Amino acid sequence: KEKDFDIGLTIRRESEFLNEPVEDHRFVMGKINAGVMFFKYTQQTIKFLSKWIRMSETHKNDQLALNIILNLDFQRNHLISYNELKILTVPTDIYNFYYFKEVCPSNVKIIHYKNDIWLKGQQYKDILL
Asked: pTM value?
């Protein structure tokens, strides 16, 4: 079912965030994965994006800046009101799949080939073609 939202964010698995062995990386990583996001063209969204751009320049990391701005306890599959924005949270398992050591489930909508992982992602070739 289609939902009315301004921004869609993908939220990591809780275990992924909690089990990150390096404290500094856990902080930068955050619960929100900025690799796949969805935007509705609204004035509120443009205002948010401008703030995010400024914060990204300050912190030299877009994902860190996003997690600092939206310092909320995000759960997956929720619709949240935040500063005149409606934010939809969806799981990385479906809309930002990058768990390449696992078998790709049939319900995955978006595969995120990040860093050099796309070179190792040949097992997903049949899904994409």
From this structure: 0.79
Backbone angles phi, psi at 118, to 5 degrees: -60, -25
Of 86, 89, 88, 127, nearest in space to 110 by CA? 127
The pLDDT tens digits for 43-65 are 999 999 999 999 999 988 898 89
In the numeric block, the tokens 């009101």 are attached to: 81
Q: How far apart are CA 95 and CA 107, in angstroms?
A: 9
- Report the C-alpha gap between 5 and 17 in whole angstroms: 25
Distances (CA, A) of 127 to 27, 88, 100, 106, 116: 33, 26, 13, 9, 19
> How many angstroms separate the CA atoms of 41 and 57, rounded?
22
Coil, strand or helix at 17: helix
